[in-house]
Amino acid sequence: MTSRLSNATIAKLPDAIATPRYDRGTVAPGIVHLGVGAFHRAHQAAYVDACLADGEADWGIVGVSLRSPDTRDALSPQDGLYALAVRDSAGEQLQVVGSILSLLVAPEDPSAVLAALTAPRIRIVTLTITEKAYLRAADGTLDEAHPDIVHDLANPGSPKTAQGFLAEALARRRAAGTPPFTVLCCDNLPANGATLHRLLVEFAKLRDVRLARQGDADLARQGDADLAHHIAHEVAFPSSMVDRIVPATTDADRARIANELGLDDAWPVMTEPFRQWVIEDRFPTGRPAWERFGVTMVEDVRPFEDMKLRLLNGAHSGIAYLGLLSGHATVDRAFADPAIRQFVDALWAEAIPTLPQDAGLDTTAYTAELGERFSNTALAHRAAQIANDGSQKLPQRIIASALECLEAGTELVHLTLVVAAWIAACAARGKTLPEGHFTDPLDAALTTLLGQQPPANETVTAVFELAGFAKDHAERQTLIELVAVHLVHLRREGPVLAFAALGIDSR
User: Fold this and answer.
1) What residues does the Mannitol dehydrogenase C-terminal domain cover (predicted)?
2) Does residue 292 contact residue 51 with C-beta atoms inside 8 Å?
């Protein structure tokens, strides 16, 4: 029986495998991370690991899962250690990452999470909780009626949501005279720091009003009085842009990694060589020296964020939905399809003019590098993984670019095909695609609507209403009509006719 990777067994690893170049016993936590999934472990945790190896021993990570205990159950017996496998066509390099010191599961013990968040030595809270976990309504504001938001307002001491934990922790720190931590959002939201800041202020205002109505003097003395003002004016929320492709780990990956390690690792992480992190440099209580290890510290992250969302993420969504409809299971196989490759090039040509023209962005080099990354056969990045949560992802990846094209009077037929392909792929589940092949927060309503298969224009109009796409925008109806034309083609002959209408030969 093979031993498990852990502090006690790490010395048994082969010399070719990189291991933490620091004494983990001397590392103190300085960061709490909400949403400790595979992306965080391949990205932020790896950057922090490099800082720890450089002697910055007060920036260890406390990982928090807001929902599932799976990551904790896999990594706690391993003392938080895991293998990071960097893969490309040349082969695979393994590194054991040691920056995660402990793991908590919020639903099991919210008080332990709050204790971690209120510890004075914690100076940064980072988040990768996915777009849907920010609990926004269709108009982008906080979904006040969401059951978890309602719960957190009624039970501030045992929250369920990121907003609830952040608000309660900041209130307790304020009452104790502890400076607030910096909140660093690392999710694919436009202006992610500002967006989270606005949502948290909205939540705190609701909380302030509730406490005032209750006349709860004890809670007010604990730091809740005018918490919204405190968060609005005294807590830093720098925006950031993150980029690294991280496919889901398979059982075959686990078996292969175990063979290379000579030890079992319950949850290794697969990734590509490329990585990027751009952060607005606003950290009142300090930060690791990330810039020593390739992180770009800037005053304004928006140009980098827009380029990544519209060129990488937008293309990823197009590849995923059109790939699934064309019978391709992975990104590299879909991108190798000449029709999809031609489509992506045209998609980029539409999106690039919507990017800031005075920010020094090298879109030619960027898209060339994306082409190489999408062609990485070693990753086997599943299209279904990217296809998840389209209603939450498409507004910033596709809809924003499409609206700017309409406003400028420029062509946008390829952008609108991505939206139609998402609708068609959702409708294909349980038919030409496996049922539940990918998921979306709107699945219940989408399944009912798409099962009736109303005419294309009615379908697209209803979907736009459900998802809140282009809400109140002057060009919304035009956008709906353009998407509907593509949906007609997809319904008749799938991507073949949709591509042919764009002058792309897919036969």
Assistant:
1) 300-485
2) yes
Start-to-end CA span in the chain (Å) = 52
Query: Can you say how many angstroms the Cα of residue 180 is from the centroid of all Cα atoms in its chain?
Result: 24
Give me the sheet containing 296-298, strands edge to edge. Answer: 240-243, 276-280, 296-298
Domain co-membership, 216 together with 325 = no
Q: Cα–Cα distance between 369 and 365 in angstroms, integer?
A: 6
Q: How far apart are CA 98 and CA 45, in angstroms?
A: 8
* Residue type at position 317: S
Distance (Å, rounded) from C-alpha 42 to C-alpha 245? 9
Distance of CA 490 to the CA centre of its chain: 29
Identify the bridge partners of residue 18 per DSSP, sorted by sequence position. 95
Instruction: Write out residues in the chain with pLDDT < 70, as ranges.
Output: 1, 215-225, 507
pLDDT digits (tens, 9 = 90+) for 61-85: 999 999 999 999 999 999 999 999 9
Its domain, for residue 496, covers 302-501
What does pTM read for this prediction?
A: 0.90
443 in the same domain as 323: yes
My answer on whether 60 and 18 are in the same domain is yes
Asked whether residue 39 is assigned to any structural domain, the reply reads yes
β-bridge mates for residue 148, sequence order: none
Residue count (the chain): 507
Q: Is residue 4 domain-resident?
A: no
* Cα 162–chain centre separation: 14
Q: Which candidate, 433, 419, 417, 436, places its Cα nearest to that of 496? A: 417
Please name the residues in contact with 434: beta carbons below 8 A apart, sequence gap of 6 or more.
none
Do 294 and 337 lie in one domain? The reply is no
Q: 279 pairs with which residues across the strands?
A: 240, 297
5: in domain: no
Bridge-based pairing of strands 182-185 and 240-243 is unpaired
> What pLDDT does residue 221 have?
46
Provide the 3-class DSSP secondary structure of residue 183. strand
Asked if residue 387 and residue 345 are part of one domain, the reply reads yes
Total structural domains within the chain: 2
Burial class (CB in 10 A: 0-12, 13-18, 19+), 213: exposed
E-only strand ranges, 45-145 = 60-65, 82-88, 91-97, 100-105, 124-127
